[in-house]
Amino acid sequence: MVCRTVRVVRQVWITGAGGPEKLQVREAPDPLPKDGEVRIRVRAAGINFADILAREGLYPDAPKLPAVIGYEVSGVVDALGAGADEALRDKEVFALTHFGGYSEYVVLPADQAIPKPETLSHEQAAAIPVNYLTAWQLLVVMGSLKPTESVLIHNAGGGVGLATIDIARHVGATIYGTASAGKHAFLKERGLDYPIDYRTGDWSAELDRLTQGRGVELITDPIGGAHWRKSYRALRATGRLGMFGASTLTESKLIGPLRLLSVGVSLPWYNPLMLMNRNRSVFGVNLGHLWHEREKLREWTGTLLQGVADGWVRPHVDKTFPFAQAGEAHAYISARKNTGKVVLIP
């Protein structure tokens, strides 16, 4: 039997497509778990770049606006639906959420709630699901990175970037990464071998110098558009380009759908014969399209949790914001001020 302890909950809504001012705290009915579900009292909710694209009306997978977004939370199970494991009650857990994470309470299937390691705060736990699962898929599952190889991480100072450094460091590969100069010292402490300042020069020329013209075996690129062409050219023979975002959309001065059109026109076209002749490959990663592969996600999460226990998974939270300052949090990320994860606190 579910005990109704809260009448309303606070949520951060996107009220319409636009700037950070479109984020607004609203109240909603207290959600109740159905059969096989649990309710989590959220202590921390992760922010991802996809959330910013959704707010700007540029994320095709986002729910129709107005809506509550958010892909990941950490908190405490405070209510169970019929059939849910009683052992989960009052447990500290973290989880992927198919939107709705910007909320004081979320309801989701019980098998999506993962016990939170005691060594992690709720803020750190909320930094794991999207960032580390994406990085694991990019580097290990599809990137097949080896200790004898090298990887270039674009946006190395972001949430996925730091997760990728952790995993590449664990693999034993040589790590290059693009980031603004002010982040270089911290990134080197985290394990980045060769930081490259993309703001003051041509990163591809610097990479060419550092690798003596060879290039690297793997590149992770969340920027999109014509930038993917440049990354592809920087691959060594047997190289792989992992594409997992299109942050360039937010830099366009065009309005609405015209942004998507401008980026679409600049996209590279990879001919199978060209790939064969150059011994290269390209692949895409979108964690939001893996909801039908829960077994895989749980397997990868298990490996990452072992990484937490062993010390090589080290989620870093740059800054937290209360719900009332969600717009400021989005602006902070859009300005590339963060080094690591930015988290909302109900």
Summarize the structure in words.
With 346 residues, the chain is an alpha/beta fold. The chain folds into 2 domains: 8-128 and 315-345, Quinone Oxidoreductase, Chain A, domain 1; 130-288, 3-Layer(aba) Sandwich (Rossmann fold), CATH 3.40.50.720. 29% of the residues lie in helices and 25% in strands. It contains 11 helices and 15 strands. The chain has helices spanning 49-55, 122-125, 129-141, 159-171, 184-190, 203-210, 227-233, 257-266, 272-278, 294-310, 326-334; strands spanning 8-14, 23-29, 37-46, 72-80, 92-96, 105-109, 114-115, 150-153, 174-178, 194-196, 216-221, 235-243, 281-284, 317-322, 341-345. The strands form 3 sheets. Strands 3, 4, 5, 6, 7, 14 and 15 form a 7-stranded mixed beta sheet that branches. Strands 10-9-8-11-12-13 form a 6-stranded parallel beta sheet, sandwiched between helices. Strands 1-2 form a two-stranded antiparallel sheet. Helix 3 (129-141) crosses helix 10 (294-310). The protein is globular, with a radius of gyration of 20 Å. The two termini are 26 Å apart. The mean pLDDT is 93.
Q: How far is the N terminus from the C terminus?
A: 26 Å
Predict the CATH topology of the largest domain.
Rossmann fold
What is the H-and-E element order? EEEHEEEEHHEHEHEHEHEHHEHEHE
Number of domains: 2
CATH homologous superfamily assignment of the largest domain: NAD(P)-binding Rossmann-like Domain
CATH class of the largest domain: Alpha Beta
- Using the 3D structure, state the CATH architecture of the largest domain: 3-Layer(aba) Sandwich
Low-pLDDT sequence parts: none
SS strand fraction:
25-35%
Q: Nearest-angstrom radius of gyration?
A: 20 Å
How many DSSP helices? 11
